[in-house]
Amino acid sequence: MGFNQVVMKKYNVCVLGATGMVGKEMMKVLEEQNFPVGKFLPLASSRTAGSKVTFKGQDYEVIEATPEVFEGMDIGLFSAGASISKVLAPEAAKRNCVVIDNTSHFRMDPEVPLVVPEVNPQALKRHKGIIANPNCSTAQMVLPLKPIYDAVGIERLVISTYQAVSGWGKEAIAEMYDQVKTLMADPKAKVEAKYIFKQIAFNVVPQIDQFTDNGYTKEEMKMVNETKKIFEDDSINVTATCVRVPVAVGHSEVVNIKTKKKISVEEVRKLIAAFPTCKVLDNPSKGEYPTPLECAGLNDTYVGRIREDISQKNGIEMWIVSDNLRRGAALNAVLIAERMIADKLI
Ligand code: 3JN
After folding, report:
1. Record: fold of 138-323
2. Which residues line ligand 1 at a C-beta cut-off of 6 Å?
């Protein structure tokens, strides 16, 4: 896959959060997609500014992000945390640098489009300089749901996620491996849980982000609210339970869908297989279904275990797996930029 423009215009691109996992993935995806980058500027907060990154074989020093650095930049891919985006995204937008923001800060702002380009590209037209990238779990889920929504409508979604530790940053991955190492040496050892809420090695943790007043976590409420916004449909009933599992990269989701009209499993398989960037890997007789280990490093979203829900009318059950750092973050952001260029919105 690559991005070939008819006119070889180049765009000045900055990546804010260049030393983080998603920022690094953004640079990798820009390279792989052959994105028409003119000037490149890796940015970070004062904490990590000064370190070095490599982009397209060239070393760059990471610059501290201040409002002035966005002068002359065309596109800013932001992934340095919600509080940083809150301050710097409007500053960048003011300077005609279109911001594609991977944090939660602007996602539910009615003035800001929340976009998965294969699902709701039309929302980009309303942009005012800032576009929000959905939460990783939402982004990968709405892709295979879209053709089902269009064909038969969706009444309710019951979601259970199995989320990789990389969603919580590189420190969380290190914590998992450290705990595994310690416990392999001494199964009775007490390990410290600093980043994930409880021990993640040989465990699963039903808490991602903080709890809210209704008993759901923030991550769960992100899935509920963002799904409705992306489909522009508040009538979809959504409930979610988000669980951290000891996987490095790749989020998995069980999604139970109650459709408005009946649809067969065969039809669902066909619709998803025909949808861009989705692949069906669903052959129970051969033991074929996706796992996060197999999907890590890949761009597509994989769907398996598609079956009729035997407990209700018009119910479909499926298993959705994707690389959370790519589809859920870096790739989605770059695809938004590509789409905006193709639609002459940048
Ligand atoms: O843990 C995960 O798998 C996803 C985490 C996402 C996340 C973590 C900290 C802050 C977000 C997000 O993208 O919603 C945020 C945030 O921007 O609020």
Report:
1. Dihydrodipicolinate Reductase; domain 2 (3.30.360)
2. 82, 103-104, 135-136, 163, 167-168, 208, 222, 324
